[in-house]
Known about the structure:
By secondary structure, the protein is of the alpha+beta class. The protein has helices at about 40-50, 80-85, 100-105, 110-125, and strands spanning about 30-35, 55-60, 65-75, 90, 95-100. A hairpin with a 5-residue loop joins strand 2 (about 55-60) and strand 3. The model is unreliable at about 1-25 (pLDDT under 50).
Amino acid sequence: MSVHGELEPGGHGAGVAGGEDDPKGVTSRYLLVDLAEQLTQDELQNYFSTFGEIAEITMRTAASGVISGSVKFNNPTMELRKLMLQEKHSVSGHNVSVQTWKMQKLAKPGYRAKLDAERAERAMAKGGCGKGDAGKGAWGGWGDWGMMGKGGWGGKDVGM
Length: 160
């Protein structure tokens, strides 16, 4: 078994029972971020197998020299998710940071702003006024323009 194997194509995402990696979903694959050079796949296997049956452990070294990996469990549960994300992990004396694929994507600069812009665009395409309730978009909604008063614009009565 090589110390720093490559991720298989498509093997980098967080598999989730039910389809999406939502914050409350059951994730089967967890990313192991910024691993120490000295760690081996066998050490990771031994440590994480105490949490459940493992389907796959991977490690890779990026061009920048940063080592990362993933662990995929056969039978993920919400209890496993809590253990993986809320506990501090130390393997052979080295701290291991655990994330989901979505957590890693949301941490990238500008990604959340991009998601918000896409959501607002979809809402506008559906006839909404952006995000929020009761027609309130990013600009504050109709009430800020005085359009909700009697007779329309500025609250003045407009005869018809």
